[in-house]
Amino acid sequence: MNAEIKGNLHIANDSKLVYVAGHNVVVCRLEDRSQYFLPGTSDAENITAIALSADSNYLAICERGIERGLLIIYDLAKPTNPKVLPETLDQLQAFTSKEMVAVSFSCKDSKKIVTLSGAPDYKVMLWRWEDTKLLCIEGIGLTGNLPEDAPNTFQVSWNPDDFNGNTFVVTGPESTFRYLCYDYGADPNCLSEMKHSLIAQHS
Questions:
Q1: CA distance 126 to 144
Q2: Burial class (CB in 10 A: 0-12, 13-18, 19+), 4
Q3: What are the residue ranges in the chain where pLDDT is below 70?
Q4: Handedness of CA 13, 14, 16, 21 (dihedral sign)
Q5: CATH architecture of 9-145
């Protein structure tokens, strides 16, 4: 297994081992040691991160693509028709990075996913993945390329105490933390704005 891949090993429902092998994710049933493969997309270079939903029903795979970073979501009960994001031209033009470097499902119902793109724009993207909708996108205050030998310390984590699943923390290099909140406004389907604040930064 490649230690540079974020979240490269998971146990699903105490019965399946999920891990990255090359440009595939392997799902191994512990009871009978049978396994099947979830392939990456053909127009991507490699897998950069994976995440399992809290109920172990869904798997998200981030990839480094040829033109843009990609996100694939599999339903592990019927993994034949995965969702692939970004899907529309507007979504493709919303960021410039060729890779997604971190991903996480919302804690409550797994209906939302937050991803973070890599250099040069470092954009946080909030998706309602079942209907392939990009709810909002926001930079985290970084631009340009990190040193080649810099480790991937990026991570996105949801606030488990937020019942609505709208707040999360992004961690980055040099102990930088950003707390972000998605504000629906009066209409739950209307995005007012994603607000963010720097809550801690140390050099």
A1: 22
A2: exposed
A3: 1-4, 147-152, 173-177, 183-203
A4: positive
A5: 7 Propeller (2.130)
